[in-house]
């Protein structure tokens, strides 16, 4: 299990990496939000990060996330759902998170829209773009993105903010950057066709620099903050 000290030091390191990449690639300082990915980590690890002014947390496994949200309900945490979505499990997602990064079907978007409670602000949505793994079912293809964005834009209670992608690992920095560039271009295309998008959810522990070079506004960092994970539940 990660210790409080290691989480503090790792967070400092991650923030330095982000700041250095912003400088190197001419991004404005502070334009990349750090999302701490706390899947498989205990609530105590989240508290240690919160102590260091880390407020945005990302979770992949719904039941595990709901348990932690309940345990930590007195804290000002912004919860992001970044995992696979089963369409019969959209209600607890709509009721408990501020952001969902992994929307890739109109069916799921419609359910989230209908199930988002009136008393909460609109649910922020990113469309997951299946940029490099043609065989995987997670994410929409480039061909599907435009229609999906158009259909989703008119739904109430959810707000389309941008794209998310989880590209396959590549050998070199330049290859990683080229894949991220494809995502950035798809985002640009949607913006030019009238969608007011402001979020590019790209980059993880190993490739955050390449993502920031290509315009990421939100990096999703797990192991670089909390250390290696035990296997998923
Ligand atoms: C686990 C996960 C991350 C974090 O990955 P690390 O390599 O540990 O930084 C980011 N995004 C998604 C969608 C994940 O599932």
Describe the 3D structure.
With 233 residues, the chain is α/β, with parallel strands linked by helices. The protein has a single domain, classed as TIM Barrel, CATH 3.20.20.10. It is 42% helix and 16% strand. The chain contains 9 helices and 8 strands. Strands 7-6-5-4-3-2-1-8 form an 8-stranded parallel sheet. Helix 4 links the parallel strand 3 and strand 4. The chain is globular, with a radius of gyration of 17 Å. The mean pLDDT is 95. The structure holds pyridoxal-5'-phosphate (PLP). The site of pyridoxal-5'-phosphate (PLP) has 13 residues, from strand 8 and helix 9.
Taken as a percent bin, the fraction of beta residues is 15-25%
Query: Overall 3D geometry?
Result: globular
Structural class: alpha/beta
Annotated CATH homologous superfamily: Alanine racemase
Largest sheet: 8 strands, parallel
Helix content: 40-55%
- What's the architecture in CATH terms? Alpha-Beta Barrel
At the first level of CATH, the class is: Alpha Beta
- Tally of individual helices: 9
What is the terminal separation in angstroms? Answer: 15 Å
CATH topology annotation: TIM Barrel
Number of strands: 8
Report the radius of gyration as a whole number of Å. Answer: 17 Å
Q: What order do the helices and strands follow?
A: HEHEHEHEHEHEHEHEH
């Amino acid at each position: 299990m990660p210790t409080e000290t290691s989480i503090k030091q790792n967070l400092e390191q991650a923030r330095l990496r982000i700041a250095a990449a912003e400088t190197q690639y001419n991004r404005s300082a502070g334009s990349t939000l750090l999302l701490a990915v706390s899947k498989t980590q205990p609530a105590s690890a989240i508290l240690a990060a919160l102590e260091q002014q880390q407020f945005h947390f990302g979770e992949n496994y719904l039941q595990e996330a709901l348990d932690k949200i309940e345990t930590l309900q007195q804290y000002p945490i912004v919860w992001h759902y970044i995992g696979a979505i089963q369409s019969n499990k959209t209600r607890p997602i709509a009721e408990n998170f501020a952001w969902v990064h992994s929307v890739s079907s109109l069916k799921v978007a419609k359910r989230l829209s209908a199930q988002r409670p009136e008393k909460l602000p609109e649910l922020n949505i990113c469309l997951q773009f299946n940029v490099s793994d043609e065989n995987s079912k997670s994410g929409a293809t480039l061909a599907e993105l435009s229609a999906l964005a158009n259909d989703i834009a008119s739904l109430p209670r959810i707000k389309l903010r941008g794209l998310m992608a989880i590209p396959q690992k590549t050998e070199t920095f330049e290859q990683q950057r080229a894949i991220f560039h494809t995502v950035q271009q798809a985002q640009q295309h949607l913006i030019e066709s009238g969608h007011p998008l402001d979020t590019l959810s790209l980059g993880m522990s190993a490739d955050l620099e390449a993502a920031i070079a290509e315009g990421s506004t939100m990096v999703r960092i797990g192991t670089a903050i909390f250390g290696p994970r035990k296997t998923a539940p």
